[in-house]
Amino acid sequence: MDTTNLSSKGQIILPKAVRDSHGWVPGMAFTVEDVADGVLLRPLKSAPPTRLDDVAGCLPVSGPARTIEEMDAAIGDELIARRDRGRY
Q: What residue numbers bound the domain in which 15 lies?
């Protein structure tokens, strides 16, 4: 079993064997969940780029018309929110 230490900045270095076995690379994002006997790290799944044409009509609409840029931003925000909730 490998061991590691918590730095003064709150950082933990994952042993190379663990990173390699999971294919984790620098810059990857993880969710951190507080569990009864420690913490649980889960890598965030990357969301593929989505175009408005791919999802038109699947989100509820209310209020004034939006620009394509505003709709793309709203779709991106919802994808991130769903990913953070573990849906994707």
A: 1-44
